[in-house]
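Long-time lurker. I teach an intro course on protein structure, and each term I like to show students one example going from raw sequence to a predicted 3D structure in token notation. This year I'd like something fresh instead of my usual example. Would anyone be willing to generate the tokens for the chain below so I can use it in lecture? Attribution to the forum is fine with me.
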Amino acid sequence: MRKRKRRLWHKTPYDGVPGFYAAVQRFFYQFEGTAQLGDPNEPPYAPPADPRCPVCDAPMKEHRIDRGGPGKPTHLKCPPRGLPDQAA
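-- Reply from a regular --
Happy to contribute to a lecture. Here you go:
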């Protein structure tokens, strides 16, 4: 019975694939490992029914979002708040 060769590295998906690129991937796989995808049993994200603004706490449907386009910032316009009555 033939004795199995001792491995210095972990098994990778690139084992047995010929070529320089596969050799590089085999090397880096030892340090990077598999992708960290999170808990597979976690339920999917469910957005809230009535989202609130993180700035003014008003409903987001009352806001206006100005998209600046490529290379320009996006602005969130909060609705005007009612000013308190000023007693003169």
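Some talking points for your students: Residues 29 and 39 are 21 Å apart (CA to CA). The helical segments are 20-32.
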